[in-house]
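Narrative progress, year one. The postdoctoral researcher (J.K.) led the effort to move from monomer predictions toward full complexes, under supervision of the PI. The following entry was the first complex the group processed end to end, covering 542 residues in total.
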Amino acid sequence: MREREWRSKPRPQRRPGGHRHQRRDRHETRSDEIGAAAILYGWHTVTAALANPARHIRRLLATENAVRRLQEEGITPPMAPEVVRPDAIAARLTPDAVHQGLLAETDRLPSPAIEDLAAPSIVLVLDQITDPHNVGAILRTAAAFAVSAIVITARHSPEATGVLAKSASGALEVVPIAVVQNLARGLAALKERGFLVVGLDSGGPDDLAALQMQAPLALVLGAEGKGLRQGTRAACDRLARLDLPGAIKSLNVSNAAALALYIASQAIGRA
Amino acid sequence: MREREWRSKPRPQRRPGGHRHQRRDRHETRSDEIGAAAILYGWHTVTAALANPARHIRRLLATENAVRRLQEEGITPPMAPEVVRPDAIAARLTPDAVHQGLLAETDRLPSPAIEDLAAPSIVLVLDQITDPHNVGAILRTAAAFAVSAIVITARHSPEATGVLAKSASGALEVVPIAVVQNLARGLAALKERGFLVVGLDSGGPDDLAALQMQAPLALVLGAEGKGLRQGTRAACDRLARLDLPGAIKSLNVSNAAALALYIASQAIGRA
């Protein structure tokens, strides 16, 4: 689906070919996942991480109030929290961040290969959606729809930390994120596994709600303003639009994802 | 629908009874609408305002690039823009604001009374949803679904300016916002006009998708974390939940609004 532009600032461009030596095979993690911590803050985001045995916590900061609330809710963190004042947490975040007295430094979660996804029904594929609020909200909605995985590109995607993690409200611990170097090849791998690959595109020939769909299904969404890239579009089995009755035809991309997931779940339930 | 907490900082409380002298009849505008300008920025938000004859523009700031783009797209503003450097616009906004070279100071749009809404089919009622990104995204989706109006409370609602206007991406010019002092009385006024009033509540007895609905319909959404207030809940004809198949049951409130509007539009189409 072609969406309105969310951010106008171009991301730094690498030299053509400049990333050639950074190519990695599908079992490698992103370089930023190896050493850099994920910063998780906010009640739901941190407590979901504490409850995830696959999430290695490096440090846990909590205010006195948050420690009390953890005790009241019967949550025993894997390590004793460092009790700090609220402003010690706030100082590590942007001014508008709502941390609710909890911050964790953790390892990044591993990125599964498309070939290794277990029992897939629906996966969501994000074609260079860069806004972390939107990607976080999409993750949260994906968790609500029992999506098997999110597929994103290694470049032009936000990191699974900070604002994205907060907006995901715990969904990072539930929905695996498969990072691919090349999205067209990622879509080819999905097709090899039997996925029907449907791209959302405002100029698509079919109304998504009228499209026959079956599991396993990959729904592909582009960035607001840019939509799907040409190579992505060409790699889809079908291109479909969301028909909307009103004066403004474009939705926030996370709202578009929610509608597409609802429509697809209905269609698969009928199939 | 009961949603997860979006903001933890309480808004400043007024003294009990301290706002008694600020009561106004339904034809008055909010005090902040009389004098204070709405600050609109971003391409879609500002150009939609320029195209709206009901929107009085006080000042228009544009970068050279934006002036060129306005000319290229055949847009003639009602007044000559003041040509400024991008940082002169940025200095008036938060650091992460994407202004795309356009900023307008305008009058606030008038708030219609519920009794004066023309040919209503669906209205959305927001019960103290405070986050301006969420309310903006809800407005944008409401415009896409041809919603007749949004009803909000005078207190504990964000102003129709800045971040809200940017997230709405032009929808402020399309969807009227009816501001009410007392939401229970507002819902009573909707019922008098024949509306079916359906509140979204995670503990509601019915699945929204299975509920019989007809126009005119009012869908009521509460804030993330708090849900509908008791008085709001009591004023609804029906309370319904959104059934979701996944591990996380709560959605970002704008995504919940998008699904509710889709489901309601389908139900009304069937009725």
